[in-house]
Amino acid sequence: MGTLLLASSEDPASMNILSKVLELEGWGDSRIFSHGQVSRHSCGRVDALLIDELHIWADGIDSEHESVTGSIVDEVLVLSKHVSASETPALTLHAVGVPGEYPHGKKARSGGITGSAVPPSPRFGELFRTMNRIAIELGLEKEYDLTMEATHHGPLLETPTLYLEIGSTAEQWVDERAARVWSETISLCLGLSEGSTNTKWTGSGNVMIGLGGGHYAPRHKAVISSSEVWVGHILANYAIVFEDQDDDSIPLGPWAHAVRTAVESTRMAFPGGNVFAHLDRKSFKGWQRQALTSLLSELEVPVLRGKQIPLP
Amino acid sequence: MGTLLLASSEDPASMNILSKVLELEGWGDSRIFSHGQVSRHSCGRVDALLIDELHIWADGIDSEHESVTGSIVDEVLVLSKHVSASETPALTLHAVGVPGEYPHGKKARSGGITGSAVPPSPRFGELFRTMNRIAIELGLEKEYDLTMEATHHGPLLETPTLYLEIGSTAEQWVDERAARVWSETISLCLGLSEGSTNTKWTGSGNVMIGLGGGHYAPRHKAVISSSEVWVGHILANYAIVFEDQDDDSIPLGPWAHAVRTAVESTRMAFPGGNVFAHLDRKSFKGWQRQALTSLLSELEVPVLRGKQIPLP
Amino acid sequence: MGTLLLASSEDPASMNILSKVLELEGWGDSRIFSHGQVSRHSCGRVDALLIDELHIWADGIDSEHESVTGSIVDEVLVLSKHVSASETPALTLHAVGVPGEYPHGKKARSGGITGSAVPPSPRFGELFRTMNRIAIELGLEKEYDLTMEATHHGPLLETPTLYLEIGSTAEQWVDERAARVWSETISLCLGLSEGSTNTKWTGSGNVMIGLGGGHYAPRHKAVISSSEVWVGHILANYAIVFEDQDDDSIPLGPWAHAVRTAVESTRMAFPGGNVFAHLDRKSFKGWQRQALTSLLSELEVPVLRGKQIPLP
After folding, report:
1. Average pLDDT score over residue span C151-164
2. Which pLDDT score is estimated for A170?
3. Which positions 76-95 of B are in contact with A (Cβ < 8 Å)?
4. Strands C274-279 and A3-8: what pairing?
5. Do B30 and C100 touch (CB under 8 A)?
6. In angstroms, rounded to a whole number, what is the distance separating the alpha carbons of residues A31 and A127?
7. Are strands C90-94 and C161-168 parallel, antiparallel or unpaired?
8. What per-residue confidence (pLDDT) applies to A312?
9. Measured between alpha carbons, how far is B291 from B257 in angstroms, rounded to an integer?
10. Exposed/middle/buried for C160, CB within 10 Å: 0-12, 13-18, 19+?
11. What was the pLDDT predicted at A247?
12. Structure ipTM
């Protein structure tokens, strides 16, 4: 197998996207299992799973799907609503985890376990760039922000995972045009449509981790848009918390664990990859940047500037 | 008392059906209790309870209702949405439990405790046949599948229970015509409307357990539609899992526990009844059918074919 | 700081009110934190927090907001849907807790911990009277019941809290006019609009606790409407449960704990206040009234009749 598309009946945007995905050719009839309803695509590499629970609480659904259905899951794409206080319509995607939350080891408010992260699906960059292209083709780029988000929320899974989202109010959650952007993006990137290719990580390449900036990661997004780089975790400033520093010692705070976790988790998703970091430099103070650079050097993760990022 | 109609404010179909039910004559004002809002019908045999939690998680709500209100609950009818990946509009009902899920004793993904089942309300057959008749009278039979489902999901209750559902997308959940089918069915079967009768199990009769087939149980449904048999649990193939058999010994796997549990749970709902099993024969391999027959014989449950099922 | 406005993306009415509140002038951009999205008002006294979890389950969100953002929270106003089986459109507010539920110390069906109560925000009376005035100004008083409710449901918080609600079906949850009543009420009572004042408890005044009557507290509401009294917990009869009394001893049952808890919790919200009780006399039997009066006397809480309640 390959990809598990995860939808939840509690989430109207999730149902909207699932519905459009199942209109693609090649799906078999859905079957009820103990954990949910499963449709299998005739390509043999994609299952769609509909569960009753909201997906952010569905810890371990990847291994449960494997044990119940016998499928092998090596990627989870969660179909989800996006919510924002600003109510800006948006198509967005992001990796999962709460590596910067502290204290560690507790159930986080929006799912997941504080201090931990889920490996990102290696398709992050390609899904983002394809979603952008399709949204423009369908004429939605003026109505919807086409964006990505920093790593946040649950569930806790072992398999490389991404959230694909429509937001940010009920009006957009049920917009079939927005769902179509995601269904076509999925179809192309997973090789479900004729002529499309199922691009997979093959063990070599440059993989970018984004550190710093706001939740919608504008500087990292600019780099990812204009290159063909592979993309791992993106940690916004709120996930890289430093305690104030009085002297020249290494600053305390949850930041170091968050960065280590993001690097490890990205390496798990891209075995053999050259992981490098891209910093939103202006979002850090000098001593914070220095602490980050020093830790990244210890982790053997070079820090590259935008211009240094290798072209495809 | 008698029947507890359970609705949840988290479920739009549940609210839709409750609203239509409360339009029937004879309801008193609703009263707030610690577990939810209770309306009592003047017949003295029916309470409607509205809770905030989604009903599939409401383990023990039957005994809580008894202790908080002093009512005796001997039947729970849950008003619910139905969800399916295929998006087929449907009116459906089913018994509750996850007797085939393994390992046992854990909280299941969609509520209930793995390995356990809730006794089905003895009104299963009558509710199904009445719902069919009313849906046809109201001209909905072309728009909606009129169907039943195999036993699945939570909550865990002690009282005989059925789920009455509208599905399978948000469009149907709020369809007042669909809600009216259920409100009239409830009114007739519970004896709330003039001239209707409150048919109860009186300690003798033939009670069918359905084993095998898909989730929507077409072969069992055919028998139940064309007879007046009482109906207990229906287990679909996914709940009767055999491990592959190498020799002639009794096959291992969760199947035996699931069947025993379904039989015991059905007998609790129909004390004194003649419980028999109807098999969807083509859905089993020969050695599986043999294992089932042997276990059913040990449990003193005869296996009957469609033609052998006693007429009313 | 001062006030935390709490909204949940699972609750359409909550999102509707939040949206109208954020249209008021003076809000900064929203920022993502580990517990949710935070917008800060330029007055420096009000944060709006949007969480993914339904608010009734958000135990401890007040102290989590403090530790994550560094803000001091001394009041929580929860923006919420209201649900009622009768489907009456309503604008309503109420304090939080389940002090009358028994046995104590357990997670209650609709959130909170049985036997405990959350201090009510001291703004209860003023918010109620302002909401009434604005709803009439906007011409909604014929369409919506303008009401208050007895203390009920969760979450468990330490900070003085009120629920501000729109009900009671999905049609009203998304009514922007209803949301505007609450946004203008909040703006006026929190001093966000020009010329408005941020009325705070300053350590002296008469504070009414309401005991007895139905959930919508008509007799207590009449007193609160026609006075400028401060308002604490209101316990409906269902939260003041007496066991039947055989002799002249003090009656047993959860009532005494509920009343003690309501008094203590109200005193925490109004330090230095003159707490008195107003009884819905007809809702109690003579021996119940006597038991209440005796307990209230022991707690040094005078019982006042409507006419005795001091004018502003």
Report:
1. 96
2. 93
3. 81, 83-87
4. unpaired
5. no
6. 28
7. antiparallel
8. 56
9. 13
10. buried
11. 77
12. 0.88
